[in-house]
């Protein structure tokens, strides 16, 4: 772990450190996250596809890596902290890598797992200086160069920079096809089933179906290519649009599907990428933020109550909608329901004339905080009063239980 490694930003800034995890080269958009905990959840979040993540927390790796079969036994044994089946970040940048994990649940260490999955990391970087650079100049492309190539005469800074600048930018990146499920799968409700939901997998995290299951919801995790006819045929009570990587401006097919769902009047809930897609379906634009919001300590204001929630964020794009007035859209009146206290960015949308809402932040945040978890209950309320997706699920009892 003492082999030299180099991090090169697209603007020519160079940081030297030590490689950890796999050796080799990693390219992506350099972004920073301010989460003090939850690096495993971050690394396995598909929304980080093609991003090199910089942890501002100074020491990383203390809790090791918690793999598992996923079968809960109530004590934490056998339950993984993974948010998906793989590490999705392109690379990982830390200040101080913990020399050994100290966690009774750990099954291996962070560098071991990164090496196993072929993910390149660099430690020993002045992540305060790097974060200031990214805040000042904006998120930008970068490369981590580790292993035997470092120090060879051919690998000059100019050569590294040339490779970094040859990489595609995150603006315009269409990554849904790289993360969405191919076949789809069903996660049953815990206990008595109340509702069924079609969750469109744009890079869904494991905790979302878990939060739905805990509320008596059966979740059909479906590919991004799912059609409104397939949703209707399932007879679900609601549609969920997941988080996911890439530029929402490229997600035209998802926007079209969302418009079909709104037209059909099926209750809809979207998170993060799902919020951006609902925004576009309602006629709003999206834009790239300078350096984005990533972390688990971001304050948002609930416009309805004035209450402030501390929330988890991971977004580099945002919806362009007026936050101070109700907008008239093709699907009726829409209001911005949440905004970020740090910079006023739109953090949630609510349709006043349709059963649809979405948030830019993460009520499903597995590393916490849990302030926003109640939004899953709001989705349940919508389904209890809403229309189901097709003739197969048209009758509801007073408890909201669907009968064909
Ligand atoms: N977590 C997400 O869903 C991210 C959405 C989108 N890719 C963004 O960066 O804004």
From TrEMBL:
Domain of life according to the entry = Bacteria
Answer whether the UniProt record assigns the keyword Manganese to this protein. Answer: no
This protein's pathway reads: Amino-acid biosynthesis; L-arginine biosynthesis; carbamoyl phosphate from bicarbonate: step 1/1; Pyrimidine metabolism; UMP biosynthesis via de novo pathway; (S)-dihydroorotate from bicarbonate: step 1/3
**The Carbamoyl-phosphate synthase small subunit N-terminal domain, residue ranges:** 3-145
Entry's CDD domains? Answer: GATase1_CPSase (cd01744)
Which UniProt keywords are listed? Amino-acid biosynthesis, Arginine biosynthesis, ATP-binding, Glutamine amidotransferase, Ligase, Nucleotide-binding, Pyrimidine biosynthesis
Which leading EC class covers this enzyme? Answer: ligase
Question: Has the keyword Nucleotide-binding been applied to this entry?
Answer: yes
Q: Where does L-glutamine bind?
A: 47, 244, 246, 273, 276, 314, 316-317
Instruction: Kindly identify the residues recorded as the active site.
Output: 272 (nucleophile), 362, 364
- What Gene Ontology molecular-function terms does this entry list? ATP binding; carbamoyl-phosphate synthase (glutamine-hydrolyzing) activity; glutaminase activity
Q: What does this protein do?
A: Small subunit of the glutamine-dependent carbamoyl phosphate synthetase (CPSase). CPSase catalyzes the formation of carbamoyl phosphate from the ammonia moiety of glutamine, carbonate, and phosphate donated by ATP, constituting the first step of 2 biosynthetic pathways, one leading to arginine and/or urea and the other to pyrimidine nucleotides. The small subunit (glutamine amidotransferase) binds and cleaves glutamine to supply the large subunit with the substrate ammonia.
* Subunit structure of this chain's protein: Composed of two chains; the small (or glutamine) chain promotes the hydrolysis of glutamine to ammonia, which is used by the large (or ammonia) chain to synthesize carbamoyl phosphate. Tetramer of heterodimers (alpha,beta)4.
What is the similarity comment for this entry?
A: Belongs to the CarA family.
Name of the featured protein: Carbamoyl phosphate synthase small chain
Q: Which organism is it from?
A: Nakamurella multipartita (strain ATCC 700099 / DSM 44233 / CIP 104796 / JCM 9543 / NBRC 105858 / Y-104) (Microsphaera multipartita)
**Gene designation per UniProt:** carA
């Amino acid at each position: 772990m003492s082999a030299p490694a180099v991090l090169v930003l697209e603007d020519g800034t160079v940081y030297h450190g030590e490689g950890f995890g796999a050796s080799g080269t990693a390219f992506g958009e350099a972004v920073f996250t301010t989460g003090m905990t939850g690096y495993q959840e971050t690394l396995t979040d598909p929304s980080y596809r093609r991003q090199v993540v910089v942890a501002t927390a100074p020491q990383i790796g203390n809790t090791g890596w918690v793999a598992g079969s996923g079968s809960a036994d109530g004590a934490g044994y056998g339950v993984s902290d993974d948010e998906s089946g793989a590490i999705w970040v392109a690379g990982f940048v830390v200040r101080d890598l913990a020399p050994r994990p100290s966690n009774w649940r750990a099954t291996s260490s962070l560098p071991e797992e990164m090496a196993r999955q072929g993910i390149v990391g660099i430690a020993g970087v002045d992540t305060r200086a790097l974060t200031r650079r990214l805040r000042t100049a904006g998120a930008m492309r970068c490369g981590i160069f580790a292993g035997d190539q470092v120090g060879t005469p051919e690998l000059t800074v100019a050569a590294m920079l040339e490779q970094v600048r040859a990489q595609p930018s995150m603006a315009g990146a269409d990554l849904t096809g790289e993360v969405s499920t191919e076949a789809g799968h069903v996660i049953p409700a815990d206990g008595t089933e109340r509702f069924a939901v079609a969750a469109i997998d744009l890079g869904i995290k494991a905790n979302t179906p878990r939060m739905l299951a805990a509320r008596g919801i059966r979740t059909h995790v479906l590919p991004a290519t799912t059609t409104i006819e397939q949703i209707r045929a399932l007879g679900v009570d609601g549609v969920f649009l997941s988080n996911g990587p890439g530029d929402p401006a490229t997600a035209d097919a998802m926007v079209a599907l969302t418009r079909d769902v709104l037209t059909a009047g099926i209750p809809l809930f979207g998170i993060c990428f799902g919020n951006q897609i609902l925004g576009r379906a309602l006629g709003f634009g999206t834009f790239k933020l300078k350096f984005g919001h990533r972390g688990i300590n971001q304050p948002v204001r609930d416009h309805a109550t004035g209450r402030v929630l501390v929330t988890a964020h991971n977004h580099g794009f945002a919806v362009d909608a007026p936050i101070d007035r109700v907008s008239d859209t093709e699907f009726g009146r829409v209001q911005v329901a949440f905004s970020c206290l740090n910079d006023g960015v739109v953090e949630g949308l609510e349709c006043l004339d349709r059963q649809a809402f979405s948030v830019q932040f993460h009520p499903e945040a597995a590393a916490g905080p849990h302030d926003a978890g109640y939004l899953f209950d709001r989705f349940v309320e919508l389904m209890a009063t809403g229309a189901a997706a097709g003739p197969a699920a048209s009758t509801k009892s007073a408890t909201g239980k669907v009968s064909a």
